[in-house]
């Protein structure tokens, strides 16, 4: 595994080809740990800096795990409600920094994991295992889109501000009662409305199911972008939502872009 | 009262009203109103500014009736601990009752400032429709409204001068709300939209501020990219207070120089804030205005110590500094050396939950500031360690503190060198700082500190206590002392029934008391409510299991308790988790 910090040359990349995970070196750095000013994001440069070497990553054993940097992170030690007394507004701004991008060489998209959601190294490793096990185990539980022609599976991804393709859903959507996400998918002539990720996927799968695409086919959708509001803050710009075929290295170019002009004004 | 009556008739009413106009302070006006009926009558007709510290302390209609000429109103709703999620979200603090009463009785209202209230879009539309001369809307820590409500304000308030939205939770459902400001709107002086989460149409904003020559304060939200800041500044070089939008971009020498010159063009700039996602790249662009700055808020910028030092050392005239603990002791030592006019310092935690590497911000930074900044009077300081010796030094250096809030992040933390409670340190603070109005305690504390506070803190108006004390005596010291105490908020302390019942009368002299996770029983609350009809005794029980509160026995523990004086009786908008005892 390698970090996804673009331009971060201090991580070593294992010689992974395809889906070979025999020897992996996992290095994680918090989003803000970038050394380069260019990549400065909302984050802390002294955030959690973990370095973990493990063999047989996917089998879950991590006995040889020299831990450098912060030591055992107590990300989920029992938190007292409302203590320390930091206003929710301020906490929301800070909270965004505990999401870390994780990439596995050879996979078509990246994932995001919330370090605060895991009580320790072991739990984090387990979570990461599950996230990336679909590439070997082929038992991804949430199959949503299957191309009827060639049986390829699709998952919704988006391109973030670094140019990385991320799986939708790792950073929780703020589901607000009166929020809609609407957009037009050009080429399909369909208008999509969704109030959360599940609906979005379902809606797109319905549309997508009506058209089949083969590899290397470019199906254009409309322009524009939609901001995903996650947990009270704008985390990523959803510039285009692309359906990536799992289990292959090539990405199918079905781009779904959302047109902000068509976002409905809410009635109160 | 024959003598008083004759005296008042010496002058016509207009003369007395003119005299009263020199009494701006509410306390003085309240005193004047008690002299005689004539003065009561005259004063009430000439009061045009009211402050309601607790929206439930008085019926809105009664307030509106008593002061018919009000032009400016400020109202506060939820208790302070609502900021930290201790108050249930449906507790109350709705603004409708007030806005409806004001729309009815104060059609000439020009200013409305609401804090910690639930403000609906309907409220905003009512404000926009009913107050023809409306000029100032300030919403602080409010919720319940959306940008659609803001659109109504923008569209209808023709003389709007201030739209000040500070740390509100605003639903974003009307993307183009700012387009609702008509072309004829040229009166804006303050526009603060820093808390809005959604996209802002910067072109619309540019046109708006371009036609508002009196704009002094502009605070953007983080959706405004750095490149567009340049254009905005060109249109408003007269700005006194600027909150930047996102303060990061791809490094670009041209952008840097354009930004630098745009900022330098703002010759009157005194306050800077925002700096979302700021990194070292673009910070030097503000160097040219640093010398003139009196207020700098870097508390949302995760900039490291060295960069902060480079920046702040240039700000020789800084009076207010808000910063993250990334500044560390070293940075505060530099601040102490450079910012001799500093009056207010707030240091916020970059990592409140302790997951990251430790930061070298300790008691030394606080001591350095106290030694180097003779005008310092207000401090908010989050740290992880403290000593009595440091607090003694701070107390000696700064006898002029009006506000001292220290938050040692781990509860029950003792003096890390002596392992003693921090009683001596905080006692020194209250004994030395005779003008202390606000105090927040933390760390390991026994009843002794409360004895000192009760005895010495004569000007104290607000006290926040958490994870402190040994028993009832602690609370008793506070309630039987602290002559000017207005607000007391306590959480997780072993204070029980006795001090409450023994000091029931004190509670009527205060605005409010909050106690949560203490040792108070339902029986004591019932007694208190019976004894003190002018108090609302609110018991908050969120768990909703078992018997309803009316059937619970007296020894049932009370999880959360909120007591406040009121002339309005029990409120009618309590949610199911709140009981008002009678």
From TrEMBL, chain A:
Residues 1-20 are annotated as: Disordered. GO terms for cellular component: nucleus. Residues 97-195 form the PB1 domain. Belongs to the Aux/IAA family. Aux/IAA proteins are short-lived transcriptional factors that function as repressors of early auxin response genes at low auxin concentrations. Homodimers and heterodimers. This is Auxin-responsive protein. It comes from Musa troglodytarum.
UniProtKB/TrEMBL annotation, chain B:
Residues 11-52 form the F-box domain. SUPFAM superfamilies: F-box domain, RNI-like. It is found in: Nucleus. GO terms for cellular component: nucleus; SCF ubiquitin ligase complex. One of its GO terms (biological process) is SCF-dependent proteasomal ubiquitin-dependent protein catabolic process. Keywords: Auxin signaling pathway, Nucleus, Ubl conjugation pathway. Pfam families: F-box_5 (PF18511), Transp_inhibit (PF18791). Pathway: Protein modification; protein ubiquitination. GO terms for molecular function: auxin binding. Part of a SCF (SKP1-cullin-F-box) protein ligase complex. May interact with auxin and auxin-responsive proteins. This is Transport inhibitor response 1-like protein. It comes from Musa troglodytarum (fe'i banana). The lineage of its organism: Eukaryota, Viridiplantae, Streptophyta, Embryophyta, Tracheophyta.
